Amino acid sequence: GEGTTLLQSSSAPLLVGTSSRLPPQILQVNRCPDANQKDPNDAVVRAVHFHPASDPDRPLLLTAGMDKTLRFFHVGEEESTKIHGIHFPKLPIYSASFLGDSGNVVVSGRRPFFYIYDSVAGKLDLVPRIMGREEKSLERFAASPDGRTIAFVGNDGYIILVDAKSKQWMADLKMNGSVRAVAFTPDSECLLSSGSDGDVYRWDLRTRRCVERFSNEDGTIVSTLAVSRKHLAVGAESGVVNLYQERAASERNPLKSIMHLHTSNDFSRFNHDGQILAFSTQREKHGLKLLHVPTQTVFSNWPTSKTPLGYVWSMDFSPSSKFLAIGNDGGKCLLYKLNHYHKLL
After folding, report:
1. Closest-CA residue to 227 (of 252, 194, 191)
2. How far, in Å, CA of 95 to CA of 45, rounded?
3. What does the CA dihedral 27, 65, 184, 300 come to, rounded to 10 degrees?
4. DSSP secondary structure letter of residue 99
5. Residue 321: helix, strand or coil by DSSP?
6. What are phi and psi of 260, to 5 degrees?
7. Phi, psi at residue 4, to the nearest 5°?
8. Which has the closest alpha carbon to 140: 172, 109, 119, 164?
């Protein structure tokens, strides 16, 4: 049935290590028809996520948002086809993410409960609350790349770890100040967190101890984190994005402070090989920039003020970076093809 079509393409073996040097300055980009053209959102697209094990040429994408609907699309450069949609009557969706390579999707919002949707079996599980926690909202979370752990942003400096399989509480991590951002390392072994105190914390998930803590140079509230194998991007409410080495033996200094946003950096993401960092604000139009990580320079040709982005609320790169999907305030999921990576497929 539906489930089999949803993930039929994900048995294709992933080409590991397909990478070549991305040229700086000019990014070759082509606009494709919107990924959700067949069924646009009725409100802000709060979440877009590509299935990490889907076919790099026609990947599987989910979109979700304030219209309480989770939708799945097979994405292509000529057209994207809608596979399936599921409506959550009580839940304007703030966050949605595939759990690793499984077909399971975590869905949450400004509610004390969350859902796990098994898209292969078409089965929906409501997790009414997390035992021992009083949070009225679970709207922010990160799912580990291996699909085993969900880290919810809790109240008062708490990060709530939930086992994705059993859907049970595993542990709480506690930092100073309030938590604003969480991100797993690509190997799923550590979690990074930050927030109102401007410090970045690294947690070893085996011992659940804080193994590193450093002060982000910007000094304001940290609003977003992104991690690749080599780099860590720390975005702040000031709009400054600091790029660090992922691991450092000694004192932490940014490799580069990127000053291209004038309002809070709300979202950031590295592409699959870590050569591009996309970072955005939802508070100004065209508030998206792409950084060429090896040279630490922002691409100058795209996007421009003429690129019809609207207000950017979410984005994701496809598994081999052939596509960049961008969810905006108008309910569109814009789709762009990155030619450098398309040629490698």
Report:
1. 191
2. 10
3. 20
4. -
5. coil
6. -85, -15
7. -70, -40
8. 109
Tens digits of residue pLDDT in 43-79 = 999 999 999 999 999 999 999 999 999 999 999 999 9
Alpha-carbon gap, residue 30 to 33, rounded angstroms: 10
Collapsed DSSP state (helix, strand, coil) of residue 2: helix
- Give, as one character, the DSSP assignment of residue 4: H
* 3-state SS string for 181-195: EEEECCCCCEEEEEE
- Tokens matching residue 225: 């984190």
Q: In 3-state terms, what secondary structure has residue 339?
A: helix
The token duo for 113 is 């409960």
Neighbours of 20 (CB within 10 A): 11
User: Is residue 218 within 8 Å of residue 261, measured between CB atoms?
Assistant: no
Vertex 269, ends 24 and 183: CA angle to 5°?
A: 140
Angle of CA points 104, 49, 154, to nearest 5°? 75
In the CATH hierarchy, which top-level class contains the domain 29-341? mainly beta
**How do the domains of the chain map onto residue ranges?**
29-341
Q: Which residue has the tokens 């320079």?
A: 297
How many angstroms separate the CA atoms of 252 and 259, rounded? 19
pLDDT tens digits along 199-217: 999 999 999 999 999 999 9
